[in-house]
């Protein structure tokens, strides 16, 4: 580690050890034109990504004791475009499932969508109005397993119907997680999603809210999807969509879940943003 004070979002030695083999292999496949290994430590690049995801700061507002934003963005974009971010995420998910006594490959998925406001710099062509929620921005579709681990992410304009997002998620799940044979959805996903799932060998079941339920009531099978969205909200970069490209928004979700899973695997508590309070002596 460099000679600087650590940030709460920094990777510990144990957490970095979970990611380092993939990053090292990537660096070996992508040597620089001059043959050197690069000016910045890869661990510090990851630390900068975790810092930005957790605090929500702009690229140019990254602290000066982290690598410059141009270098951090270079690696972020390269890993987004070649799928390295998802590779790291998926490998960690397998380890978390094994740690929990589950098989590496999930057999069921929860699918849900979340509408978030878009920042002023997001292109209007990539946003829309969610007519049901009367909210303008982007819609984030998530497929997760029974442990609240992400299997697939799809980000679109908020005007996109849940059917289109559900079909997209099913396609991604079928490609990356062919072991999945069942998916639970809410009533926002219509027959087109179920029919598409049948064609892929995935049985799609709609789970309805109990008719006599009053106020907040967790929905069987479906409550885990809401927990996933709540977990993502700990990362302030995801509270609002700041990204020009939907692919960048999807990558943000993978990095947020990667940070969560490294803490889960090393049994490290997630630092809270709330200040500690000291009860004065009587």
Automatic annotation (TrEMBL):
<dbReference type="Pfam" id="PF01609">
    <property type="entry name" value="DDE_Tnp_1"/>
</dbReference>
<feature type="domain" description="Transposase IS4-like">
    <location>
        <begin position="114"/>
        <end position="256"/>
    </location>
</feature>
<protein>
    <submittedName>
        <fullName>Transposase</fullName>
    </submittedName>
</protein>
<dbReference type="Pfam" id="PF13340">
    <property type="entry name" value="DUF4096"/>
</dbReference>
<dbReference type="InterPro" id="IPR025161">
    <property type="entry name" value="IS402-like_dom"/>
</dbReference>
<feature type="domain" description="Insertion element IS402-like">
    <location>
        <begin position="11"/>
        <end position="89"/>
    </location>
</feature>
<dbReference type="InterPro" id="IPR002559">
    <property type="entry name" value="Transposase_11"/>
</dbReference>
